């Protein structure tokens, strides 16, 4: 077995089409399973939360929420330092995203935008083997900067108690409440609210297929806002002959490490690089055999190397793919980047592996997957801000514009009331 | 009958709760009906479009699309002038919303955001009595400014031919293609693409319940992006004793004119104003009896006047309501506006009736309804822009930050590949 290497050409869609079909999580089965859970939490509130937690986690909850500030935590100094550096970098990059209110004069009137935060947020943090404390920083910091007032952390309870790192992160982020309910029932608690859990208008953060199905269903009902629907992780790498094949293999395996449905696509003009990366992948499988079957399935079945004759074709294919992560490892990566239209987060140059953005550089790692970057953005301060438009019309401008409103409202059959509401003001001094 | 007047207090939720339940379009029945239509268009393409157009519109389509530039139109000069003034004002306000790419240094690395437009857009324009040419301007102009390249207009065919105003608007907006298919089948054509109709990644614009259901369903499937789900229209008016009761009645009736499920809520501290507005509504029903039953149902059953003892309570109630349109007609409307958190579009002062924004002032009239302004914004340039984040990490910064990435990836069980992808670069010169 080896990673597929394909000599592709943009003018022959058959040569690349199979690599455009990125894994999309199929949520229909999970949705059918969670609907009764959502309904029960909606109807029975805390009672349902206790019942499901007993059933799924084997835990009899005493209190459903806890105040992280009331708990003593002891985190190793070096771990604390790492997270504090990440927090500072994420804060710096996201503070630069904050919006300023503004207004302009248009045809004599004042028109403007005032930015206001969504009122409340639940950040979901999975438990068990999928404990990703870094995602708590990514989900919470942009909301704090946007000014979201009511932020709660939702996470499954653990028999041995919640991970100290989660509680400590809640403390340093100023989160006032942890809801110790996981899965679809945790999402339902936040979306509907219960006796113990205040309703959240927005829910973000990774989770298993039941969490994803619950978020997606409740968002479709207009009940909550969510980050973009999350599928399997993917990376696309555009590289030329100047790139280091061993490093590229490592970057591809970083995605493969997330699961067997993850995808890593290398686009290059260099046949030599393609073959060298394929070899480096095999070497890596030998020297780093942890979770080998999973990584091999991701690389052999869901990944590939496409060799195009021109760099322009690599870029065009990447824009068709609209990847979650895009690395550009070429001589002048900014040159290729200028033509990139759709990507969640882009990593330029030799020293910018995706893992730097996953953890520490300051960009957000909650990103649209499965081609979603054609229409969605990464999580950011804008995710939690609304644009409230406003206007103050002057008497002079109303007088000038009334004849137009009269004509347009007549044309739309709305002159009787829409037209009249302007006319009465127009006639004020007549 | 008369509009309900209630003396309300924030400390007694029972006094106002019934006015918080705004009409939300129930799409479940319509969704069941449109699913076979969507499936047929997906499978059979143009054949299905012809079949449904025959069935629902009684029209045998020759060509499914037409090029507006190929048609001669003759619009009265004064109507053309009105729409050109509206277009210019909308362009001015929306151009001010355009984003500039930026980057900053964070911990030695370059982190930035590049804004790119969504690739394609379909603007839906209903036919028949719901012909709203103004909505074509509102849906199209922000996308053009954002840089969306492929914009098509989707609208039902008419036995007497398409309204000239629609074709003319397509011409002046530079729209290259009109798809003459309406309803759910028109939305499906744009969402899936057919032999004649290119796929659109984004669909906006008002429509009947089947159009709304199709947009909502396809967006839930992750197939298209849409403007926020549209329900019945609503206005909230905050006014004090300085406001003109007759004007306020006109503004309330402007919303009532949209349909019997529309809602108009007046919040005031003045009992005198409340009673005067109620009287003015009755007078208006007598002197402007067009669509009387509809307007009366909206005013008597879905609207109300709430008298609070303090202006702060009016504002707090408005924030609970999160109205689509909010008028503030008080002595110093900016003072109250400063405390407004959730509203789609706000109209300040005596001379700013909603109709000015509906048609001509320059703000967008495609707005979140049914409390959606708690988490959604009005249509704007941002609707059609994505934030592509990027970074270029330096060797020095990678070396400095590697120990943190190592610790964090170990904690998340992702050190084997995530950690290694940074480690190999760290060790480059060792």
Automatic annotation (TrEMBL), chains A, B:
It catalyses: L-histidinol + 2 NAD(+) + H2O = L-histidine + 2 NADH + 3 H(+). Its EC number is 1.1.1.23. The keyword Metal-binding applies. Zn(2+) binds at residues 255, 258, 358, 418. NAD(+) binds at residues 124, 185, 208. It holds the Pfam family Histidinol_dh. Keywords: Amino-acid biosynthesis, Histidine biosynthesis, Metal-binding, NAD, Oxidoreductase, Zinc. The keyword Amino-acid biosynthesis applies. Belongs to the histidinol dehydrogenase family. Catalyzes the sequential NAD-dependent oxidations of L-histidinol to L-histidinaldehyde and then to L-histidine. HAMAP family: HisD. This is Histidinol dehydrogenase. It comes from Leptospira ognonensis. The lineage of its organism: Bacteria, Pseudomonadati, Spirochaetota, Spirochaetia, Leptospirales.
């Amino acid at each position: 077995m080896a990673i597929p290497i394909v000599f592709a050409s943009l003018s022959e869609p058959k040569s690349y089409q199979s690599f455009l079909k990125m894994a999309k999580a199929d949520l229909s089965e999970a949705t059918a399973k969670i609907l009764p859970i959502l309904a029960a939490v909606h109807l029975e509130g805390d009672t349902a939360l206790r019942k499901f937690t007993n059933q799924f986690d084997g835990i009899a909850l005493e209190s459903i929420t806890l105040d992280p500030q009331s708990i003593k935590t002891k985190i190793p100094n070096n771990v604390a330092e790492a997270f504090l550096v990440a927090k500072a970098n994420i804060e710096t990059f996201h503070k630069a995203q904050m919006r300023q209110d503004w207004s302009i004069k248009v045809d004599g009137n004042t028109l403007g935008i005032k930015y206001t935060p969504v009122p409340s947020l639940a950040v979901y943090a999975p438990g068990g083997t999928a404990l990703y404390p870094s995602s708590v920083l990514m989900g919470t910091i942009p909301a704090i900067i946007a000014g979201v007032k009511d932020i709660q952390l939702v996470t499954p309870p653990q028999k041995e108690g919640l991970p100290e790192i989660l509680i400590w992160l809640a403390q340093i982020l100023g989160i006032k409440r942890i809801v110790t309910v996981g899965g679809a029932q945790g999402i339902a608690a936040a979306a509907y609210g219960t006796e113990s859990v205040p309703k959240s208008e927005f829910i973000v953060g990774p989770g298993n297929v039941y969490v994803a199905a619950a978020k997606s269903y409740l968002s479709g009902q207009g009940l909550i806002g969510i980050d973009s629907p999350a599928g399997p992780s993917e990376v696309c790498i555009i590289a030329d002959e100047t790139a280091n094949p061993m490093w590229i293999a490592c970057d591809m395996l970083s995605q493969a490490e997330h699961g067997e449905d993850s995808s890593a696509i290398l686009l290059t003009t260099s046949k030599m690089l393609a073959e060298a990366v394929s070899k480096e992948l095999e070497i890596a499988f030998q020297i780093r055999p942890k979770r080998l079957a999973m990584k091999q399935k991701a690389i052999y079945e869901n990944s590939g190397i496409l060799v195009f004759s021109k760099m322009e074709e690599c870029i065009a294919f990447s824009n068709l793919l609209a990847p979650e992560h895009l690395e550009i490892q070429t001589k002048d990566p900014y040159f290729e980047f200028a033509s990139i239209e759709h990507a969640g987060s882009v990593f330029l140059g030799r020293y910018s592996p995706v893992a730097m953005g996953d953890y520490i550089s300051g960009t957000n790692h909650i990103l649209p997957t499965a081609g979603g970057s054609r229409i969605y953005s990464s999580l950011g301060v804008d995710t939690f801000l609304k644009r409230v438009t406003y206007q103050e019309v002057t008497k002079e401008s109303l007088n000038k514009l009334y004849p137009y409103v009269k004509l347009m409202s007549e044309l739309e059959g709305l002159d009787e009331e829409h037209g009249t509401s302007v006319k009465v003001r127009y006639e004020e001094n007549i």
